[in-house]
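Dear support,

I submitted the protein below through the web form. The confirmation email said the job was done, but the results page showed an empty box. After a refresh the structure appeared. I'm attaching both so you can tell me whether what I see now is the final result or a partial one.
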Amino acid sequence: SFQSLDYDVCENKLFQDELRRRHSDRFSLRTHVIRWIIFVLIGIITALIACSIDIVIEELSEIKYKFLKYSVDHNVPMNGNDGDLALPFLWWILLSVIPVAIGAAMVTYIEPITAGSGIPQVKSYLNGVKVPRIVRIKTLAVKSIGVITSVVGGLAGGKEGPMIHAGAVVAAGISQGKSTTFVKDFRIFKAFRDDHEKRDFVLGGAAAGVSAAFGAPIGGMLFSLEEAASFWNQNLIWRTLIASIISSFTLNIVLSAYHGLNDFTFTGLFNLGKFEQPLSFEYFELPLFMMLGVSGGLLGAAWNALNMRINKFRKRFVPWKCGKVCEAILVAILGVTLACTMIYFINDCRPLGNDPTIHPVQLFCEDNEYNAVAALWFQTPEATVRALFHDPPGSHKILTLAMFTLVYYFLSCATFGLNVSLGVFIPTALVGAAWGRLVAMLLFYLFPETQFLHPGKYALIGAAANLGGVLRMTISLSVILMETTGIETSFFFPLIIALISAKWVGDYFNDGIYDSVIEVNNVPMLPWEPLPQYKGLTAKEIMSNSVVSIKLRDNVHYIFEVLKRCSHNGFPVVDDVNNDLRSSGRVCGFILRSQLIVILQKALFAENKRFWESDTTIQTFRDVYPRYPSIESVRPLDRKLNYTVDLSIFMNPSPVRVNAHDSVPRIFNIFRALGLRHMLVISNENRIEGIITRRDFIYK
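What the results page shows now:
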């Protein structure tokens, strides 16, 4: 069900003519400036979308949790009050089920590609896989509404991951200067209408999404390079960084104005707050941080393995759309039930004023006290992570954090993979922050004289370790955490120790969660190096032999029949053909299926060349990008079946060719580095022997 993208530019005669016609310093400068302007626009629009999502979530969550607090306070059966706590429980279920049902229904019935965080899909796209419907406006709309409903519904997820997908959609839309959804062509940015240019803009959009989500422009750029990109260069790094900075700056201005801040200190959607005191560490703590990293790697590997088993079960036993919506509703009810059970049975009362809780719930506590368990649940997951980082020592019981870690660990595992738009970053960070703070509390309980056991510090290390164990990111993740918390560069060393330890341990057992999702969905993703079983093989042993060739000047009827009967997306062009046996011809070029269909649609035949030659340019083919027509859209050619097509000006005259005896590791490096879709295998006489696509590097 997946096709490849054409990252290799087709340098045919039309393309060369355009380069010669427009070869001037003025045009080159204009194209260069327009490219920078597009990256700036990507940053601004991505930030505005992020602001809109964040404001709607914050306002709706405020209404929800304020109402639930009011309902709990007026239904506690104390001091002669005949209240019934079943009422706020039912209200909580209702206020969770309604938005989750709306979001799950939209994702399931309108745009299924919006399920999850979207990062695996964007990563696949940047690797060269054409994921259907990934960068459409309808996808962006459903993604935005879906993430709002999921977070407001209280599911164990966050809005940060989907922002990366949203940034990619924005980049793909702006850079093309037209909307295929609304059938509107603004006739701008025409020079960028190909897969090669679009890929670079999508990478910048992903970086802008990370920057908006975390307020981390450098982290956004590094995330795109470390986790998403398969191809990059120095100029692309600069443009990606600019998009990230503009995105972070725009979001900073808008949200600071919304929150009434005059100094523009609101840094991102995932605002963890700044630590009041600089975080310091003793060198004898480094082995402890390493052990936390090892624990994070083990917990992350177990989480990934369990989540993959759950998702495989879903794929097999919950294939119906209605069942997927009902499953999301059941998980929402399960989360509310577990939260209410913890709040009701764990007696953890703390004095008011020592904790920055937005909606303190008294429940069975005395006057001027609040329920610390309810404080963990009666807010968004981001706010809970922030509380675990900055709550003063003694804000929770050991039992409270132990049960919360256990419940949220399995709840987040069951949530990721539902047909809703949610990211995995926040629940992973929340679980890590909870058990990291729990470790500090246990150590302080065993060694009460110690002075270095700052609970916020260990919550941060725990969050980093758990994120490293699940996501397997190191450099970008450490920079993101530094930028979101404002910690000193001296604390970078403990973070890196925890992250690398978690990654190494986790990699011993399985892949990161994004790579695991890609594998479960059978996406033909090219790794950085060829698989071990391919070493020692040659091109002849992995190539496909079912090659269909087309002559340099061929019959319209033959081309039409070839396109009707086979689904190949590319055809070698041959000449020096003996007895009409095309397989024996010498390779002189390569032509794509999409090009042939446009040629047939527009009747670009040799017999009527004088009518179309002057008007046909490379733009003729760019105008139908990216939704190329199918062969069924070609009108009957009854009177033109004997016409001839001259492919000399349309074909790529210099396709990448390798010898049948070349080694697979060598041709793999060429294939991946150039972002190819097809690679021709030829004999010593330049005759076609086979063809190699990305599937031949994975499934043979």
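Response: this is the final, complete result; the empty box was a page-load delay. The mean pLDDT is 88.
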